[in-house]
From TrEMBL, chain A:
SUPFAM superfamilies, per the entry: P-loop containing nucleoside triphosphate hydrolases (SSF52540)
GO CC annotations on file: plasma membrane
Keyword Transport assigned: yes
Organism, as annotated: Geodermatophilus sabuli
Domain ABC transporter: 11-259
Protein name (database record): ABC transporter ATP-binding protein
InterPro entries: AAA+_ATPase (IPR003593), ABC_AA/LPS_Transport (IPR051120), ABC_transporter-like_ATP-bd (IPR003439), BCA_ABC_TP_C (IPR032823), P-loop_NTPase (IPR027417)
Regions of compositional bias (Low complexity) in chain numbering: 270-283
Length: 283, 396
């Protein structure tokens, strides 16, 4: 696996600190993600992983630090403008438009591509019709890619959980992203669904060549897929490195399993134990 | 549909599939598969099944022919139903599709009614303003645009407030509107006086007056039916376009919508503008049927009636809005018949219990019953009936 940080980075996060009144959710986090890179962020519950995502996509505004996306600062921009620049995201707890069909959910991912106005829409005039048909064709490619064909016309609220996760990934892909943020893509999935999702993630990296940042508690998945891993604990970055480096870091083991285990003789086994412990919290 | 049904000539000429996803609707279907879509355009068409085409066609023919069968007073009621449908579609766009609860619909109806009557009003009149342009498209558009501009002014409230808070603020709008309408004599004529509504003049002919071959009510009914068709079509187009999808996205998950690239503030603004435009037009048309505007008629009860139309008809459906509006429009007529069957109800307003009290009670009762037993409204009932017959003779 190659770390793509040598090329121009897609995202540069520098010394970001986010406070909610007295609570410091993120404390001096820095990292960069390069092209074609699958970057993972791990850490115990409440470590600030999702907060980092919320800073990146513009939902939270940190008090300190800077975030550059494709070379331009994004802090202070509204979420939809950041999305339009090519940052797509999935959510830990599925955030789909549950009354809409799979197709309509994916079509909404193409909000950035809509150029026609109110009047064209009202009359279903040429620009609106052409734009809708082009978007539909683009969306159908994603339906094929994620094997969603059989669910197309269903309201997503009626679909099984694993499929909803896939639809959410599809909505993010429909945005034609330059960076994809995956917030716990396999949380709550069984082995089979997890393997499917892992396959899709690898396909996205290798076929679509979209860089990704993934937050995940399933250590097996993270260690297998990620190029580099950032470990955070209580908002503080502990280490960044390849999966193997991270697994050997005593501070990481301490964050997951506490002081005794880190200083005890189980150092080499601890990362996999950490994986099962963390995964166990999310049945 | 089965293969034994007579095939359309174009389907029989060859088995070439559609000419790609950008082909217009009406692409050829494979031999013997009349219900198969071969282009996205066919799938996305408004009437994308033969059942819908035939059903709507039959309904329209029936609707156009009704004036030859029905009495004038019933036609007047149906014309009102058409106009209320336009208003209900407007409310459904902002409340049903975009999820922004608005109790201020009556205000926008009032704005539309008065704008139209000012534009069409007699300039010689010394009591109230008038510009003297009685041509229907002009005053109708003016009514819609003025209401839409006021909707644009109100919309920023919706980007700060949501749910019940927004409902309360829009409720305030109704009271402000009522006060202004009562006090602004040069606009409304004042309480107890009122003013003439806009006259529906089209190509030099006042449609509300009797012509050589048709009565005024017949002409008004046809006019309102055509208006309803136009507004319903535009409503459907908005609902199926990116605009309608973004409305629903803001309703279901506003934060996710924003992160998906939807400008939530702009969507809410558009929802209010479109809805107010519809309300303005509906108000103008409605009072052109009634002929006279009383400044105290744009109160909370009117807003509640429109909420009832949306809830009873079906939230976030255009056809549901129409069903709900006709239901509410025809309801008084039905309750007037009740004393014959329920002896304890009086048809005189001075006795209690009387039918008028019963009618007011019924709005509330129906809202509650529909919310509990049929949340998808009359549209949901229709879907259930349709699915039963689709699956017939199987019950699963």
């Amino acid at each position: 696996m190659t770390a793509g940080s040598a090329a121009a980075p897609v995202v540069e996060v520098a010394d970001v600190t986010l406070r909610f009144k007295g609570v410091t959710a993120i404390n001096g986090v820095s990292f960069t993600v390069g092209e074609h890179e699958l970057f993972a962020i791990i850490g115990p519950n409440g470590a600030g992983k999702t907060s980092i995502f919320n800073v990146l996509s513009g939902v939270y505004r940190p008090q300190e630090g800077s975030v550059r996306f494709l070379g331009e600062p994004v802090l202070g921009r509204r979420p939809h403008t950041i999305a339009a620049r090519g940052m797509a995201r999935t959510f830990q707890n599925i955030e789909l438009f549950e009354n809409l069909t799979v197709i309509d959910n994916l079509m909404l991912g193409r909000a950035h591509a809509v150029r026609y106005g109110m009047f064209a829409a009202a009359g279903w005039l040429g620009p609106a019709r052409r734009s809708e048909l082009a978007d539909r064709a683009a969306v159908e490619d994603i339906v094929d890619f994620l094997e969603l064909a059989q669910y197309r016309g269903f309201p997503v609220g009626l679909l099984p959980y694993g499929v909803q996760k896939r639809v959410e990934l599809g909505r993010a892909l429909a945005m034609e992203p330059k960076l994809l943020l995956l917030d716990e893509p396999v949380a709550g999935m069984n082995l089979e669904e997890t393997e499917d999702m892992a396959r899709f993630i690898l396909d996205i990296r290798d076929e679509l060549e979209i860089p990704m940042i993934m937050v995940e508690h399933d250590m097996g998945l993270v260690m297998d897929l990620a190029d580099r891993v950032l470990v955070v604990d209580f908002g503080v970055p502990i280490t960044t490195g390849t999966p193997v480096e991270v697994q050997r870091n005593p501070d990481v083991v301490k964050a997951y399993l506490g002081e005794d285990h880190a200083t005890g003789g189980r150092r080499s086994k601890a990362p996999s134990a950490a994986g099962t412990a963390a995964a166990g919290e999310h049945p | 549909m089965t293969a034994t049904e007579p095939r359309r000539a174009e389907a029989a000429t060859g088995s070439t599939p559609g000419t790609g996803p950008t082909a217009r609707s009406g692409g050829r279907r494979p031999r013997g598969r009349p219900a198969m879509y071969t282009t996205y355009a066919q799938d996305m068409a408004l009437l994308n099944t033969r059942g819908k085409k035939v059903g709507l066609g039959a309904l329209l023919v029936l609707a156009v022919l009704l004036p030859f069968v029905l009495q004038d007073d019933l036609l007047r009621l149906l014309a009102t139903g058409c106009v209320l449908s336009i208003g209900a579609i407007g409310l459904n766009l902002v409340t049903g599709y975009a999820g922004q609860v608005s109790l201020g619909h009556a205000f926008f109806l009032g704005v539309g009614a008065y704008t139209a009557s000012v534009v069409a009003g007699d300039p010689e009149d010394e009591e109230v303003w008038g510009l003297g342009i009685t041509f229907l498209p002009v005053w109708l558009l003016a009514a819609g645009v003025v209401a839409a501009v006021l909707g644009l002014v109100v919309a920023p409230l919706a980007s700060r407030l949501r749910g019940l808070y927004l409902a309360i603020v829009t409720l305030g709008l109704v009271f402000i509107g009522e006060h202004v309408f009562r006090e602004w004599d040069s606009l409304t004529g004042g309480v107890g006086v009122g003013r003439q509504a806009a006259e529906p003049v089209l190509f030099g002919m006042d449609l509300s007056r009797r012509s050589e071959s048709f009565s005024g009510d017949q002409q008004m009914y046809w006019l309102m039916l055509a208006m309803l068709l136009l507004f319903a079509l535009v409503g459907r187009n908005i609902a199926r376009s990116a605009m309608g999808r973004s409305f629903a996205a803001v309703r279901d998950r506003d934060i996710a919508a924003e992160i998906t690239g939807v400008d939530v503030r702009r969507v809410k603004r558009r929802a209010f503008v479109v809805s107010s435009f519809y309300a303005g037009c509906a108000g103008a048309l409605w009072y052109s049927i009634l002929g006279f505007i009383d400044p105290s008629s744009f109160g909370l009860l009117l807003s509640v009636q429109f909420i009832a139309m949306v809830l009873i008809g079906g939230v976030a459906t255009i056809s549901g809005s129409i069903m709900g509006a006709f239901f509410i429009a025809l309801l008084p007529r039905l309750t007037r018949e009740l004393p014959a069957y329920l002896p304890f109800l009086s048809s005189s307003a001075t006795d209690t219990p009387n039918v008028f009290q019963f009618e007011t009670l019924l709005y509330g009762l129906l809202i509650v019953l529909f919310l509990i037993f049929e949340p998808r409204g009359l549209y949901g009932v229709w879907i259930r009936v349709r699915n039963y017959w689709k699956a017939w003779p199987f019950s699963y």
